[in-house]
Amino acid sequence: MFRTASVVLWKDLRIEMRTRDAVSAALVFSILVLVIFNFALDVNTPEMRRLAAGFFWVAFAFAGTLSLNRSFALEKESGAGRALSLAPVDPAGIFLGKALANAVFLAVTQIIVLPLFVVFFDVSVTRAWALAVSFALGSIAFAATGTLFSAIASNTRMRELLLPVLFLPVSVPALIAAVETTSFALGNTESASFWFTLLIVYDVVFVTASLLVFEYVVEE
Amino acid sequence: MARRFGMVLDAALLVAMAAGFGMIFFYAPIESEMGIVQKIFYVHVPLAWNAFLGFAIVFFASFRYLATRDPKWDARALAAAEVGVLFTTLVLITGPIWAKPVWGIWWTWDARLTLTLVLWLIYVGYLMLRRYVDSPERRAVLSAVVGVTGFIDVPLVYFAIRWWRTQHPQPVIAGGEGSGLDPRMASTLWVCVAALTLLFIALYRRRLAIEALRARADALREEADAARAEGARS
Questions:
Q1: What is the pLDDT of residues A7-24, one digit of tens each?
Q2: Which residue of B has its CA nearest to A193?
Q3: Are B98 and B38 in contact (CB under 8 A)?
Q4: How far is A169 from chain B (nearest CA, A)?
Q5: Is B31 helix (H, G, I), strand (E, B) or coil?
Q6: Structural contact between residues A24 and A112, judged by C-beta atoms closer than 8 angstroms
Q7: What's this model's pTM, rounded to 2 decimal places?
Q8: Residue B35: strand, helix, or coil
């Protein structure tokens, strides 16, 4: 399972390094969302600065959807998805590889957007370790849920529409927990242990569930 | 046998509905603070309970489908999801009608309201997914996966929203519906719960019957196509 996962992961990372499709699309899109927030709401007030974590994760939820849509569309176009499902390997390994690749793309996007976010919203990172944990756990949460639903949506006629419709409501707990932990990292709240716990529980539940059900999604 | 059972069920539904509505308007006292608008409670609460029942059935049937691959479980999941979404929609409509005169607002991001809305979104997504997969087997498998993972998510959504709410100011909710219910109100509520549960079952059974007819029509069409192809060959 882990060998399959690492092969799939390296394949996706290599494609990404050559095309830079997923990260650049997510990057441009999240910058756009942050800029639009700036026009729609006057963000440079102390009250708005408290809500900055929310803006940040909304930008990610939508940008993530964009790059997750690519994840299995790529396999469909080239027929690689069929080849993968015919290969005598554990489907759970395929899921793990794809999900890890998506988590890496999301995390890279976050790291690039973070300085811009700090500049636009005039926030200060008071707890760097909390921010790192929040980003890592949040990326895993979005990648696990998103990879599963992206695989499901890629089997349908309306995949670009269906992915957000399926993925966003289910990831509501992860989104709330991610916003609260980032908010804690920015020094807006005093404690967030409940939210870190919830995010970890979400990650464990969805990674496990996806590993178990993925074989049904990729079968032909 | 099944037919007679259906007729008995429908008769019971009619009786329970008539009794429920009669009790709502002529038996249950008018609530002292909220007035006549509180009567919506007798429809709202049973609808919500049955909607949750529907989503639990979706989960169970989806799980059974993945284990057995028997199309009947897929049909059951579909029927329960459709009736569940219908009931949730009605909950989301009756709720604000009740809330506006009583709380002064149509909507508040209270834990229960938010959970209901998120559930509605998850199962609308489930039904949308079903529309866009052409192959019946693939549709059954994919929607079963969503039916299972969507329901696993419910406790997480619940805890997230509950905790999130406690950190924010909450509008004052005048007396929870469980607190000190007049016995006449309680008995009216239980009759309405029975009536709407019977309605749920009646709609669910009809939806299953439609699905069975649809499956038969598809099979006949396939048979006819095969026969025509055979005829063309000879």
A1: 888 888 888 888 888 788
A2: B163
A3: yes
A4: 6
A5: strand
A6: no
A7: 0.88
A8: strand
